[in-house]
Write a structure and sequence with these properties.
Helix content: 25-40%
Largest sheet: 2 strands, antiparallel
Strand order of the largest sheet: 1-2
Shape: extended
Oligomer: single chain
CATH superfamily of the domain at 7-63: Winged helix-like DNA-binding domain superfamily/Winged helix DNA-binding domain
Number of helices: 3
Order of helices and strands: EEHHH
Radius of gyration: 17 Å
CATH class of the domain at 7-63: Mainly Alpha
Number of strands: 2
Length: about 80
């Protein structure tokens, strides 16, 4: 298996955006779907064509475009505290 054998880029499909298995389902949309659903099993009824390996590769593909860098926040970080 190549690292991204399920990610396809075709200038004639979805304006050349990276897609899952040449479907009209972009990597970006997969990431948005993951952010919107609290459980992967909830995704299946709405996106039955989306397989677990599609999700893994979309996440890995998106991660390749993120830089490891330090981001300064204007508000100091305070650890989350659980109410007793």
């Amino acid at each position: 298996m190549t690292e991204f054998d399920r990610i396809t880029i075709n200038p004639a499909r979805m304006n050349g955006q990276p897609c899952i298995r040449n479907m009209r389902l972009t990597v970006r949309r997969v990431i948005e779907i993951l952010a919107a659903y609290s459980d992967r099993e909830e995704i299946r009824p709405d996106y039955p064509e989306l397989e677990d390996e599609d999700i893994r590769q979309a996440l890995r593909y998106a991660a390749t475009y993120l830089d490891d860098r330090i981001v300064e926040f204007s508000v100091p970080y305070e650890p989350y505290k659980v109410a007793a």
